[in-house]
Amino acid sequence: MIFNLGAPSQFETFDPKPEAPGEIRGPFKPIPVAGGGFQISEILPRHAQHGDKFSVVRSCHHTAAAVHDTGHQMMQTGRLFTGG
Q: Does 5 map to a domain?
């Protein structure tokens, strides 16, 4: 798993928005990945070469708490920490 906490925005990495206004889409162009099906940023050419070997999850939802930290914990461990 690549978990980009504190990394460049999703629009500059794995979820480019080429049709969005310039101030949203950012300076990088999308490139196709091997195997087709989606595009990623041109700043990730090696990832694009192996695009047929990974999946990109672009949305997640949980109801444990209305904060990102809880979602991060669940994403990285598969469960919610409930004790001291």
A: no
